[in-house]
Amino acid sequence: MNATESFIRFRPADEARDAARAPLVDLRDIHLAFGDNAVLQGIDLQVRRGEAVSIIGPSGSGKSTILRCITGLLRPQSGQIHVSGTRVDELRTESQLIALRKRVGFVFQQYNLFPHLTVLQNLTIAPTLAGGVSQADAEREARVLLQRVRLDHKENAYPGELSGGQQQRVAIARALAMRPELILFDEVTSALDPETVGEVLTVIRELVSDGMTCVLVTHEMRFAHEVSDSVYFTEAGRIVEHGPSAQVFEHPRSDRTREFLQRALGSHSSNTHARTQGIEAPLHFHQLQFAL
Ligand SMILES: Nc1ncnc2c1ncn2[C@@H]1O[C@H](COP(=O)(O)OP(=O)(O)OP(=O)(O)O)[C@@H](O)[C@H]1O
Question: SMART domains from the entry (predicted)?
């Protein structure tokens, strides 16, 4: 695979065959408590390469905690976490955790951009400092990624000069700049004005359709239904239901899932299709490879 292909992240056939055998993310019987608050009580969760997986459920049910375990920010009291062949729950040193986080992108509700750096500098700083990429290559890739999230005209702007949706798209591009194997999205639209939610969802939808492995914690139920290959419904630290998106959303087996979805979909006025009209025509990685 040459540098361009690796950056674009198409999945060759042999990788797809390997992926069918071993999940990229594999959580087995995870237990985690904060003091006497048992937050995760036997979580089993798998994500295959190229899959989009959503974790949905009531507030406080442990969704964000699961993501933080995957990226090594939290260590469970028991259970195993495998990410791309690494036993995350056994990592001990800071350098091991940094190496993991280069491979696992994490986009939060808060954008956490460096306010004193331009958009382009926000994208190049980690690849050049931690990724061993030359400044010229980092800038070239950053510009492609900014085109990818339709912010190429903002490369010299500072985060404070951007809308929330634009800042979140920079945060997604910054995660991509590390060439992660997967990206975790933790309620990335929750803090946005309604009119900018659609532009962020459009970017995520395109990543999913281009084969980026994604784990989404979201309250955007219609979006989760649309983009996910599989869905986990959590309640009180347990997986109550898991299955293909169509099954969980259209034919939930558990009464709790059904009740939750009725409430969430009923009370949520968003219309995914309407909300994704926020930005111009989709631009895909396979188009961008010619720009590299
Ligand atoms: N650092 C922490 N210290 C103590 N308790 C915590 C910590 N982080 C999370 N919790 C608790 O763990 C539980 C699960 O939190 P978590 O954020 O994973 O839920 P969630 O399903 O993502 O909720 P929401 O949808 O509201 O974001 C909650 O009871 C929360 O208060």
Answer: AAA
How long a stretch of residues is the chain?
292
218 close to ligand 1 (CB < 6 Angstrom): no
Mean pLDDT by 10 residues, the chain (292 residues): 45 55 91 95 96 95 96 94 92 88 91 95 92 91 95 96 95 94 94 89 93 94 93 96 95 94 72 38 33 28
CA 144, chain centre distance (Å)? 19
Q: What is the whole-number distance in angstroms between the Cα of residue 104 and the centre of ligand 1? A: 21
Which residue out of 31, 40, 64 has the highest number of ligand 1 atoms within 8 Å of its CB and is therefore the one to mutate? 64
- Distance in Å, CA 4 to ligand 1 centroid: 40
Please indicate whether residue 63, judged by its CB atom, sits closer than 6 Å to ligand 1: yes
pLDDT value for 287: 32
pLDDT value of position 21: 65
Identify the residue whose C-alpha is closest to ligand 1 atom 31.
60
For ligand 1, atom 17, name the residue with the nearest CA: 64
Q: How far apart are CA 173 and CA 290, in angstroms?
A: 18
Alpha carbon distance, N-terminus to C-terminus of the chain: 15
